Amino acid sequence: MNEKLNSLDLPGLAEAYDLECKAAQGRDGRGELPEDFWKSYSAMANADGGIILLGVQEKPQGSFQALGLAEIERVRKALWDNLHNRKQVSVNLLDEEDIQSVEIDGKTVLRIQVPRASRQSKPVYIGSNPLGGTYLRRYEGDYLADDETVRRMLAERVEDSRDERILKGFDFSDLDMETVAAYRNRFAAVKPGHVWADLPVTEFLEKIGAYGKNREEGYSGIRLAGLLMFGRAEVIRDALPRYMVDYQERPEAKAEKRWVDRLVPDGGWSGNIYDFFRKVYQKLTSDLKVPFQLQNGQRVEDTPVHEALREALVNTLIHADFTGRVSVLVVKRPDMFGFRNPGLMRISPELAIHGGNSDCRNRRLQTMFQLVGYGDHAGSGIPKIYNNWANRHWRRPVLYEVRDPEQTLMELRMSSLVPEEAIAELEAYLGEKFHALSEPERLALITASTEGVVSHARLREICIEHPADLSKILAHLVRDNLLASDGTGRGMVYFLPWQKQREDALFDLRMGVAGIAGSRTIPPELGSVPPELNTIPPELGAIPPELPPQYLEWNDLPPELQSELLALAEPIRAKPRVPPELLKQTILALCDRRYLGRRVLACLLERNADDLLKRTLTPMVAAKLLIPAFASSSNPKQAYMAVSSSSKQAM
C-alpha cells in the first residue's frame, strides 16, 4: 500500500482525471469484481484513460464513501485472470503498477489506472465482437459506440496512412491542372534544378506520391492523397461524401456565426486542399505586421507568427479525417486564430505538445507539403507553434479534442498572458482583495475573465502546482464567491460571478441534430452557405434558419411560460417515484420546440439535477429522443429539445 487518501480528496481527483467509483462489494459483502467494470475499462481506454476505484461508493454524485474490500486479493486475482482472457476483453493495457491498493478513510480499496489505448489497440472491446462490445466515455458514463465509430477505429488501426489508397474509376481528368501547375512552380522555386522539375505531369505526380500502383491487384491510378491535393471539390466528394473545407473571418471576438469573409468550395475555385492552403494562408497573414529586417541583402517577409500559422494550417489538413462528420474549419478573429480538423489525434495532445512523437493520419499529404517547403519534420510542428507563440508573450495555445462528433481544435490567442484590461476589470470589482490572492488564484480569475470560463485542465496548462492543489485553489475561490461553478468532475467549469456565463470558445458547438451519433447533418456554421453554391452536398440545407429558444435557468423563463410548464409537470412534481415512461413523456412535452437546461427541468420535476442527467436525460439523447444543444455533453450551457420538435420545424 503506497498511498493514503481522504474521501474529501476524491472530488479533486475526479476533476483532474476521469474517475469511476464502484462499490464492488459482491453478494457476500467481502468484495467482488463487478461485471460493469469492463464497460468502464473499455470506455476509458478508448478515450483518454482514467482511474477506477473499487470499494468506493459515489452516491449521490460528487459525494464519496469508502466501503473497502475485505478480500482485496480475490478481486485483484479475478481482475488479472480476466485481463488475459480474450473472451472477456480484447486487450490487456495494464501493468503491475497500474493496479494498487490504497487507503481511503482507513478502508483498503483497489485503484486501477487505465491508460489511453494506442491507435493500434483500439477499439478496446468486451467479448469477441467490436461491433456491440465497444464502449465510449461520455460525461462520466459508459455508452455503447455506434457501428460507424467502431469501423472508423478499425480503419485507423490497420491503415497507417489514410490517404494511401489508390482509387478505381478516377483519372487525370478529375484533377485541376491549374492547381498542379501552381504546385510545380512552387516545387521548382523551392528545389531549383531538381531532377523531378522537368518530368512530364504523370511522372511528376507519381514521384511526389499523388499517383501510384496497387501491386497486389495490379492496377494503377490516382491516390486518395492526389485527389485531395489536386482534385476538384465535386469529384473529391465522389470518393469522400463528407469532404468540406471552410474558412471564416469574423469581425468580433465572439463565438458567433457572423463573418465578413468566407471561403468554401463554391464552384469559383477548385476546392482542393492545396488551393485551400494557398488562399487561406494568404488571408490569415494579410494584415500581420512584419518588422523590417534584411537577410543576404533581401528583406525577410517571414516572422515566427507566419511560421506558426503555416504549421497550424498544414497540421490541420494533414491530420484531418476526411470521412468524419465535421468540416475542416479555419477561423480568423481580431483576438485569435482557430483551427479545427475532423477526427481525434492519433497520439494524446500532451505527447504532441511535448514533441518528438508523430503519427500523421495522411502521410502522403504530409510529404507533398514538405516537398514544397510547408510543414516541419515529424513531431516538431506543434512544439514550434507553442514556442513561437511564447516568444511573443501571448497566451499559451490550446490544443484539445471533442469526442462527439470527433474533432481536434487548436486556438491561438493573440493576447498577453496577463492582459491589462482583465487586471483592470478584476481590480474594479475586487479592489485590493485581488492583489492579496496567491499567483495561481489570480491566474484562475484572469483566465476566467479573458476566456469566459476556466477549468482544472486549462489551469494545469498555465500553472506549475500539483493537480490536487489546483482543485483546492478552485474550491477556495468558489467558497469565497470569487468564482461560480457549473458541472461535475472533469466537466466542471468556473466563471466570474458578475459575468454572464459564456462559451467563449473558437467554435460554436451548438450542433443541434448534428450532435446525434449517426446524423449526416453538418455543423450549423456551414448552414449559412449561399444557395448558389450548388456543389455543396444536399444535407447542408437541413439546418433550420433559426434556433429554438434556450432556457438554462428558471428565471430566464417568461412568467407565462413558467405557468405553462408547471402545468405540464404537475402530474409528477410531487411524486418521488413515477414510471420511467411517464417521466420521459413529460420531459418530451416540456422540451417541445424549445431547449431546456437540466436545472430548469430539475426544478420543474422536483428532481436532483445531476441524477436526472445521468439516469434520464443522457439515455434519452442516446435513444435519439432528445436533441442536445451542444455536441459536448459536459458543456455548461447544455440544454435539450424533443426530437419531434425538430421534425415539426423542418416541415
Automatic annotation (TrEMBL):
UniProt name for this protein: AAA family ATPase
Domain of life: Bacteria
Organism annotation: Candidatus Nitrotoga arctica
Ranges for domain Schlafen AlbA-2: 15-140
Pfam families recorded: SLFN_AlbA_2
Listed InterPro entries: RecG_C_sf, Schlafen_AlbA_2_dom, Schlafen_AlbA_2_dom_sf
